[in-house]
Design a protein that fits this description.
It is a single chain. With 117 residues, the chain is an alpha+beta fold. The protein has one domain. The chain has three helices and eight strands, in the order βαββββαβββα. Strands 1, 2, 3, 4, 5, 6, 7 and 8 form an eight-stranded antiparallel sheet that branches. Strand 2 and strand 3 form a beta hairpin. The chain is elongated. The mean pLDDT is 90.
Length: 117
């Protein structure tokens, strides 16, 4: 399975303004490291809010918007309806690494350094 990274929309907006990332034609580049990620629109499912239960087993998962819409989900900003269930979601993007990774440093180490953790 390929390494994927979830980039919350709010964080991306901030990083673009700060100039720490560049977004060009669907590819996000971390300026300091030169790492690049091909982006696909996605959400992180935070909580089920209707009381119907998480019958779709989505809580805590990141799913692409297209995969959810294929299942019949309706997404509006930070809300999602799927069948009888309603969820709070965090909009964002799934990034797949583009090109070879330089050196032996792991993606986790690069992102941790980038995020200041």
């Amino acid at each position: 399975m390929e390494n994927r990274v979830f980039f919350p929309q709010a964080a991306l907006d901030e990083w673009i303004v700060e100039g720490t990332v560049v977004l060009d034609d669907g590819v996000l580049t971390l300026v300091d490291q030169g790492r690049r990620y091909a982006l696909t629109e996605a959400v992180r499912v935070l909580r089920e809010v209707s009381g119907a239960g998480d019958t779709h087993d989505l809580l805590g998962r990141v799913k692409t918007r297209s995969a959810l819409e294929t299942q019949g989900a309706e997404l509006v900003e930070s809300s999602m309806l799927l069948g009888d269930a309603a969820y709070d979601v965090e909009p964002g993007w799934v990034g797949l690494p583009v090109g070879p990774l330089a050196g032996a440093e792991t993606e986790e180490a690069v992102l941790s350094r980038f995020l200041g953790s």
